[in-house]
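Re: [ENG-882] Designed sequences occasionally contain unexpected residues at chain ends

Forwarding the minimal case from QA. Structure tokens:
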């Protein structure tokens, strides 16, 4: 991997952890990783714990991320949170278009694209998730599906595209314990970089970081994270246990 692409490992805590439990988890991670500057580390707790976790990691290089946001800056959108509200809590990152949001909440590529633009306008770094279902993989449609998601979710960003983090998360590997092989993941990551080049230019495609997500654990992290186009991980289940998350980060050099 070229040196200019610093690895990035993010923990997606999903709808887990009370504020007290979130504080304890963040403190444990901070104890182990406060001095770790070789990798960008991001914690994405639920909205309710953003302030608490943000306070714990405030004096470290660990960054705060949210799991979703609304595309509008403010207004009558009951129950929603805007990009500026996340910035107000010192969020640096926001996960957008996670497969659970696409499948359970009907988020389309077009909706994700609006959110990506709103996030960038508020100087948040979007972590944009793409990935095929098992049905799509078995039907030989992986490239087609992923290309469309990348093209549509990241349309019209111009030079801002280089700032976006993309997470390739095969849906069949999320929370299933069934991980993509390093070769399977590398193949799609390299393909995503080709798509990025086609919609922008070579320099932008080489700068953009592409994480792998889907049952990443300490035992498989090294083999995934040493692939040339895998620039980090988006970690779900294993990010809920400090020991596992920290071990994954340590393998991401
Ligand atoms: C995720 O939901 O982003 C994820 C990768 O989950 P898990 O690590 O549990 O498969």
């Amino acid at each position: 991997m070229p040196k200019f692409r610093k690895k990035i490992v993010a923990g997606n805590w999903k709808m887990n952890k009370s504020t007290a439990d979130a504080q304890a988890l963040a403190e444990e991670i901070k104890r182990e990783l406060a001095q770790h500057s070789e990798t960008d580390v991001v914690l994405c707790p639920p909205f309710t714990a953003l302030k608490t976790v943000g306070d714990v990691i405030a004096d470290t290089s660990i960054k705060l991320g949210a799991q979703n946001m609304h595309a509008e800056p403010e207004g009558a959108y009951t129950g929603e949170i805007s990009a500026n509200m996340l910035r107000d809590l010192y969020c640096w990152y926001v996960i957008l278009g996670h497969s659970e949001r696409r499948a359970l909440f009907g988020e389309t590529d077009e909706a994700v694209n609006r959110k990506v633009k709103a996030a960038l306008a508020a100087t948040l770094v979007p972590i944009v998730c793409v990935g095929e279902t098992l049905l799509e993989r078995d039907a030989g449609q992986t490239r087609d599906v992923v290309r469309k998601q990348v093209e549509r979710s990241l349309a019209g960003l111009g030079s801002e595209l280089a700032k976006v983090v993309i997470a390739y998360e095969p849906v069949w590997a999320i929370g299933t314990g069934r991980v993509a092989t390093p070769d399977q993941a590398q193949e799609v990551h390299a393909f995503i970089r080709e798509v990025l080049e086609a919609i922008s230019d070579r320099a932008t495609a080489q700068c953009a970081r592409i994480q792998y997500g889907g049952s990443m654990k300490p035992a498989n992290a090294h083999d995934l994270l040493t692939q040339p186009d895998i620039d980090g991980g988006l970690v779900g289940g294993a990010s809920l246990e400090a020991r596992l998350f920290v071990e994954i980060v340590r393998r991401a050099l």
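QA comment: On inspection the terminal residues look reasonable. The chain is about 40% helix and 15% strand. Proposing we downgrade this to a documentation issue.
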